[in-house]
Amino acid sequence: MTDRELLELIFTEITGLKAGQERLEGEIVGLRAGQERLEGEIVGLRAGQERLEEGQQRLEARQQRLEARQQRLEARQQRLEARQQRLEDIVTRIENDHGRKLEALFDGWKQNTEQLKRHGEILERIESKLEKHEVEIKVIKGSKNISM
């Protein structure tokens, strides 16, 4: 191989190397652009993740408030149930007391009715005797008037 051929071969190789280097530099520029795009997307993902975490924190705070309200409602419900039980006990006691009182009143009414009935019978007997006595008095007065 001659010097010229060797130089041409070296030149060809160097030209190929330069073309390869330029292609690699283009690919590096593309890779850098892709990397910057990915880094931008990562920044966007991180911002989205932060928004999601903030939203989750707000949801957790709301859930805690709801749980606190639920506990207050349960406490109120227990108080209402206790009041209802007391009212039911009071109503039962009133019903029992009134039942006994009504029974006593009915017994008294029954006794009064029986007493009035007995008094009515006695009054009828007295009236009957009174009528007899009136007749007897008239007879006696009538016989005195005749004898005089």
Which SSEs are present, and which pair or pack?
Layout: H1 3-147
Protein name: Chromosome partition protein Smc
GO molecular function: exodeoxyribonuclease VII activity
GO biological process, one term: DNA catabolic process
Describe the structure in your own words.
There is one protein chain. The chain has 148 residues and is mainly alpha-helical. It has one domain. The chain is built from 1 helix and no strands. The longest helix has 145 residues, at 3-147. It is rod-shaped. It starts with a helix and ends with a helix. The relative contact order is 0.02. The mean pLDDT is 93. InterPro entries: Exonuc_VII_ssu_sf (IPR037004). One of its GO terms (molecular function) is exodeoxyribonuclease VII activity. It comes from Acetivibrio saccincola.
Brief digest:
This protein is mainly alpha-helical. Helices cover 98% and strands 0% of the residues. It has one domain (1-108).
How far the N terminus sits from the C terminus, by CA atoms, comes to 207 Å
Largest sheet: none
- Which H/E pattern describes the elements? H
> What is the C-alpha radius of gyration, as a whole number of Å?
61 Å
Kindly give the count of domains: 1
* DSSP E strands, number: 0
Structural class of the helices, strands and pairings? Answer: mainly alpha
- Point out poorly predicted stretches: none
* Outline: rod-shaped
Compute the average pLDDT: 93
The helix count comes to 1
Strand content: under 5%
User: What's the helical proportion of residues?
Assistant: over 70%
